[in-house]
Specification:
The complex is a heterotrimer of chains A (about 350), B (about 350) and C (about 300). Chain B is α/β, with parallel strands linked by helices. Chain B contains 10 helices and 14 strands. The longest helix of chain B is centred in the middle third of the chain and has 17 residues. Chain C starts with 8 loop residues before the first helix and ends in an 8-residue tail after the last helix. The chains are: A alpha/beta (about 350), B alpha/beta (about 350), C mainly alpha (about 300).
Chain lengths: ~350, ~350, ~300
């Protein structure tokens, strides 16, 4: 077991390419206890991360996207609790069924997670290099030199002065640098799946563009399967091959990014795109979205969750949640959305 | 009319690990904000735009230059005399969560400044309650819903509207919105931007909009001017739409190049400008401040800081000015795809 | 385009009812575990004892010289003291001094400390430095030894005098904590906005800063109470302050030095009763200190 991680790193150094990995989330429901009883922050979500592709998840506050991201690592913070569903990763099985030791091995070595810049996931009391060695030690890596070498390679690729960064403390690095260090940590054990939670939220435009370029490069060169979670449609629209739109704990629309943005099917997606300030296009065409995003307790318990804000709502929408409508086009991968009205219009 | 003339501000050095010289946050900035105008400041973090906004509100001192509010120079007044003038320029904070006292209801938050005002003008209690309701409706909130609540019971967008209503209680002539929508959900941002736009026309209020997200600057109203700041100097300024469409300074171009391109509905611009290195706040540079990072650096750029000059051929009013020795128009902003074309996966533009 | 559509009266009522429920739930934090409920009960019982205790017994307790240091019996549930007076009666009547003196002292420290801290924090220039020099001086004074020395020249045995003596030397900690909080609150958005709107300094300190400092004072207060109880009991136990009215410290002094309760088994009840009372109150205060923190700081709350 201890030799396994060394072998993996040596392979990477020798340039052996590893096949891309698929991640399948099925009917995932995560609940939190409230004074009104347990309520779902993520309700019946199914999502597939296509191997080798960048998938983007767009959602505002209260959409459940961060909870979903943590669930992929089986790291839902207490008192949250996974009520149903599974997260299948090629080569690992169901992440939610792993026992503690296996889970620890999977995290970091197979699944890389990059936290939001503002969460300062780096230890403020230790230099970056030491934390890297801690990471290796906790995964049973014996060859520390190989680990550092790999980290240096990654840092060079990202345009950082590796020697300086490894010796620095967290507060000596800028926001953009910290985010890049986070990516290095996520990849240094040769993870196949990279999950980035709000990777550019606290960064200004230039740092954001630099980090997005790095994500693109690293994804390509290491044949990763990447999931990016953001409230910023621009980031997803630029980076992701496929995108999913999350609202009130449900995925309301999903498909190839260009297709979803050019021809949105769900009223929320349409409303969001119309309400987004854009650098080009007619500013007179922009319309704000009425109402506000719901929090856990104000999500409608019955019927479509978007109904209170939807301009197209009908009585049918109040009765039950709309099922997924799946469109298969030749030449394009599947698109799906959950709306009675649009489904009715298309048939 | 609010004018900043040659404002400089240096922050003292911090001792300890970083022990270098002080940071020059502003190096002689000239800004003119006309009545009912809309001026936007854009730039990276650390360019001085927030400092300038706070100086205009009177929340920070400045070391050199002058600030003239409606013809009255602030440096000729004693500190106590300045307060009533600065009060007419109100700051809208970035963070609606800390801008309101969590232990007081919205009713109390709005009544305090109104009562102060009533005391000065001799108006009575009915004026206070009436004006309170009027201001809430002006910012798009229902008084019955909002007044009895505490701030944590409102959404970020609603809180920011309350902050704006509170700023309006003193009948300001200008609002300084410092990243006013960056901490609000995307679907709620447009509402606040349109509110700021409407306030310009409905009241005699001008808006100074500080942001790093250039797209939002377009929505604060037409007739606006955009100032691009870099390390405490203005490197380019001009009418918002003209500047976005054809910037001439490489720094402006790099900011606009950094804007993400939405696949399927936008095409990447033909040109892309990327700075050659990260920002060094402490670097002492004899010539152009952007030169160490500029991909188009040329002889002469290191000799002297380029002055801010009008662009040849720009109209007199709201001139387009820049501070570059070799300005060049480059097309760096993504354009919307032509409607009717099938959304293709566009190839990215050439790398520098 | 409005952000809120006009609400129907029913919706308005429902919203307000929900916020009232939320307030009720906050107060319920004080009793939501068995430990906390018990602590509240303990404090309530002792508070009642302190208030009404002395009225339940005659001013001079009946003594019985033939029955000194008696063990617990049905007639005397906790035994008797060196004069034959009932220990239970002594506990009940002694509660008032101990608790009132501690409470008054705490009140004095809160008033002085908060005022000093707010002023020093909000006006950090010359005024603030001057106040902090005085605060540092007070903090540097070693409380208990100084009180011992003071006791030789001033007999502060009466309730009010004891409270003043304790309070005057004890406000340094609160002043420091309040000043630190005030300094940080001063830079907060809503305080800056209040200044920018022209609201006067006194108003800002009272309505913007003070309510946000209250949580720190609340917690500090509960822990200070335990400190003051120890100090006054300690002073009486050591005999530094002579016997004025009956209180637990005096009981301990008698039990240890007169009845030799530490070495001989008789008068054990007389020794343990005040000790256990003090212990119960301390545990109750510390347990509730956590609840007070959660009361003011919603993020600490765990749904149970």
């Amino acid at each position: 077991m201890t030799g396994e991680a060394d072998l993996v790193i040596t392979e990477a150094l020798e340039g052996a390419s590893t096949a891309a990995v698929a991640v399948r989330v099925r009917d995932l429901t995560v609940t939190f206890p409230t004074p009104d009883g347990p309520l779902p922050a993520v309700a019946g979500v199914s999502l597939e991360l296509a191997p080798g592709a960048i998938t983007g998840l767009v959602g505002e506050s209260g959409s459940g996207k961060s909870t979903l991201a943590l669930t992929l690592l089986n790291a839902v913070p207490a008192p949250g609790h996974v009520a149903a569903g599974e997260v299948r990763v090629d080569g690992i099985g169901d992440v939610l069924a792993l026992r503690r030791a296996e889970l620890r091995r999977a995290r970091g070595a197979k699944l890389g997670y990059v936290f939001q810049a503002s969460q300062n996931s780096l230890n403020p009391l230790k230099p970056v290099g030491k934390q890297l060695l801690d990471l290796g030690r906790s995964h049973g890596v014996r060859d520390r030199r190989a680990l550092l070498h790999r980290a240096r390679q990654l840092m060079d690729k990202m345009g950082m002065d590796a020697a300086r960064v490894l010796a620095s403390y967290q507060h000596e690095l800028s926001g953009g640098m910290r985010q890049r260090v986070g990516i290095v940590f996520a990849l240094v054990l040769n993870a196949h799946v990279l999950i980035l939670d709000e990777p550019t939220t606290a960064l200004d435009m230039l740092s954001q563009a630099a980090v997005l370029d790095i994500i693109r490069k690293v994804h390509r060169e290491h044949h990763l399967t990447t999931l990016i979670i953001s409230h910023d449609v621009g980031v997803i629209g630029d980076l992701a091959d496929r995108m999913a739109v999350m609202y009130a704990g449900r995925i309301v629309e999903e498909g190839p990014t260009a297709s979803v943005l050019a021809d949105p099917m769900h009223p929320y997606t349409r409303g969001l795109l119309t309400a987004m300030p854009r650098i080009s296009g007619d500013i007179g065409a922009a319309r704000p979205l009425p109402g506000r995003p719901p929090d856990l307790t104000s999500i409608p318990r019955q019927g479509c969750v978007f109904r209170p804000r939807c301009p197209l709502a009908t009585d049918d929408c109040a009765a039950a949640e709309p099922p997924d409508t799946v469109l298969s086009n030749t030449g394009l991968r599947d698109r799906r959305f959950a709306c009675y009205v649009t489904a009715g219009e298309l048939s | 009319m609010i004018e900043a003339r040659g404002i400089t501000r240096t922050f003292a050095a911090r001792r300890g690990m970083l022990g270098r010289g002080g940071v020059r946050a502003l190096r002689g900035v000239d800004v003119a904000i006309p009545d009912r105008g809309a001026v936007s400041f854009i730039g990276e973090s650390g360019c001085g735009k927030t400092t300038l906004g706070r100086i205009l509100c009177g929340l920070e001192d400045f070391d050199g230059g002058d600030l003239v509010i409606d013809g009255q120079s602030m440096t000729t007044l004693k500190p106590k005399e300045r307060a009533p003038h600065y009060r007419r320029i109100q700051l809208i904070h970035q963070d609606p969560y800390t801008a309101l006292n969590p232990t007081r209801t919205i009713s109390q938050i709005l009544t305090d400044p109104l009562r102060l005002r009533a005391g000065q003008t001799g108006a009575g209690g009915t004026w206070v309650t009436g004006r309170r309701a009027q201001l809430l409706e002006l910012v798009g909130l229902d008084p019955d819903y909002v007044l009895p609540r505490y701030p944590h019971m409102l959404s970020g967008g609603m809180r920011q509207r309350v902050v704006i209503a509170r700023a309006l209680t003193v009948d300001p002539v200008a609002l300084v919105a410092d990243e006013a929508v960056s901490m609000i959900d995307v679907s709620l941002r447009l509402g606040i931007l349109q509110l700021l736009r409407d306030l310009r026309t409905q009241l005699r209020v001008s808006v100074l909009f500080i942001t790093h997200d250039v797209a939002t600057a377009r929505y604060v109203g037409h007739g606006g001017e955009l100032y691009v700041l870099y390390r405490g100097t203005v490197v380019e300024r001009g009418p918002t739409d003209a500047l976005i469409a054809s910037p001439v300074h490489p720094y402006t171009q790099s900011l606009l190049s950094a804007i993400p391109v939405l696949r399927g509905i936008e095409l990447p611009a033909p040109d892309r400008v990327v700075p050659t290195g990260p920002l060094d706040e402490h670097a002492d540079v004899p010539g152009c401040l952007f030169e160490p990072r500029c991909p188009f650096t040329a002889p002469g750029c290191r000799d002297q800081p380029p002055p801010l000059v009008p662009l040849d051929g720009s109209p007199q009013g709201q001139a387009h000015a820049h501070a570059c020795l070799y300005p060049a128009r480059r097309s760096v902003v993504p354009a919307p795809t032509v409607p009717g074309n099938a959304p293709a996966d566009p190839a990215r533009g050439p790398q520098p | 385009m409005t952000a809120t559509t006009a609400l129907t009266p029913e919706q308005l009522q429902r919203g307000l009812r929900r916020s009232r429920q939320r307030t009720a739930r906050r107060w319920a934090l004080l009793v939501n575990t068995p430990g906390r409920a018990l602590s509240c009960l303990i404090l309530v019982v002792f508070a009642l004892l302190a208030i009404v205790g002395p009225y339940l017994y005659p001013a001079n307790l009946p003594i019985n010289p033939k029955n000194i240091y008696a063990p617990p019996s049905p007639a005397h549930l906790l035994g008797t003291d060196f004069e034959g007076a009932d220990t239970l009666a002594l506990i009940v009547t002694g509660a008032r001094y101990v608790l009132f003196a501690a409470a008054l002292a705490a009140l004095i420290t809160v008033v002085i400390g908060t005022t000093a801290g707010l002023a020093a924090g909000y006006y950090p220039g010359l005024a603030g430095s001057a106040i902090m020099r005085v605060t540092d001086f007070v903090l540097a004074i070693p409380g208990f030894p100084v009180l011992l020395v003071l006791a030789t020249i001033w007999n502060f045995g009466s309730l009010w005098e004891m409270a003043v003596a304790l309070g005057v030397f004890g406000w340094g900690g609160i002043a420091r904590a309040v000043r630190a909080q005030t300094l940080s609150l001063r830079e907060r958005g809503f305080v800056e906005a209040a200044r920018g709107l022209g609201l006067p300094g006194g108003h800002i300190i009272r309505t913007e800063i003070l309510p946000n400092v209250a949580p720190y004072i609340g917690m500090n207060l509960m822990l200070q109470l335990t400190g003051f109880i120890y100090v006054e009991v300690g002073l009486f136990f050591l005999g530094a302050v002579p016997y004025s009215t009956n209180n637990w410290g005096v009981m301990l002094n008698n039990a240890v030095f007169q009845a030799n309760a530490v070495t001989s088994p008789r008068a054990l009840a007389y020794l343990l009763s005040p000790l256990i009372c003090i212990l119960l109150i301390t545990i109750a205060l510390v347990t509730l200190a956590n609840a007070v923190d959660e009361f003011f700081n919603p993020r600490l709350r765990r749904v149970r």
